Known about the structure:
Blueprint: E1 2-4, E2 8-11, E3 25-28, H1 35-49, E4 55-59, E5 63-64, E6 67-68, H2 77-80, H3 85-93, E7 97-101, H4 102-108, E8 116-122, E9 126-132, E10 135-137, E11 146-147, E12 150-151, H5 152-156, H6 158-164, H7 166-184, E13 188-192, E14 207-209, H8 213-225
Parallel strand pairs: 1-4, 4-7, 8-13, 13-14
Antiparallel strand pairs: 1-2, 2-3, 5-6, 8-9, 9-10, 11-12
Helix pairs in contact: 1-3, 4-8, 6-7
Amino acid sequence: MVDIGASGIKALVLDAAGRPLTVRDRIKTPSPSTPGAVLNVIRRLARRQGRFDRVAVGFPSVIRNGVVETASNLGLDQKWCGFRLAEKLESKLGRPVRVANDADLQGFGAISGRGVELVITLGTGFGSALFVDGKLVPNLEVALYPLDGKTYGRMLGEAARKKVGNKKWNKRLSQVIEVLYSVFNYDHLYIGGGNSIKVKQKLPRNVRIVPNTAGLLGGIALWKEYG
C-alpha cells in the first residue's frame, strides 16, 4: 500500500486481512514533485519494504481508470494531468497496481458498509468520499463546493489553518459539518488526514475521527471492491 501526499509518501505491506507485515515507511515528497521524481521515491520505498504481490495507491486527485485527472495538491497540474499512474507504476515495480483518490482509500478503511457514510480528510487540502451501503460514489469533489464565498478547500486547507489559527479553523469545520449533514443526510461522517489531530471541538454523535492508518488499510478494500 502506498499513500502519496503533498508532504510525504508512505508505504506499508499488508496481508490479505489488512494486518501490517512491515513497519510503515515514509519519505518526504520531492520538490518539485514531478511524476518521475515521485515514482522514483515509490520504487525506493518498495525496495525497502521487501516482498509484495500487488500494489494499491492513494493519490490526491480525481482518478479515472488509473489515470490522474488533476494534481493541485502537488502543485503540478500540467505535468500530472493525464498521467497514467497505474500503468507507469506497474512497469516500474513489476506488480499489478490499482490507484484511487486518497480520501476514497481513507473511506474504504474506515466505513462500516451500512447506510450513507461520508469521509472528509483534512491536510494540505480537503478531500472527500461518499459511500452508500459500502459502495463508493466516484469522483466526489466537495473541496470545490462554495461556502460564504470560498471553497471548502480554501476554508479548511493547511494554508487557511495557519492564517486564521486553530480556533477559527475549528469554527469553520463545525459549520462545514452542519452544512454537509444538510446536503448529504449522512448516517456517519468520518474525519481523517494529518490535520484531524487539530480538531478540538465536541463532535456530533455520528461524527468521529479516524486514524491515518485507515488510508493504508483501505488498499485491501480497493482490491476487494473491484475483484
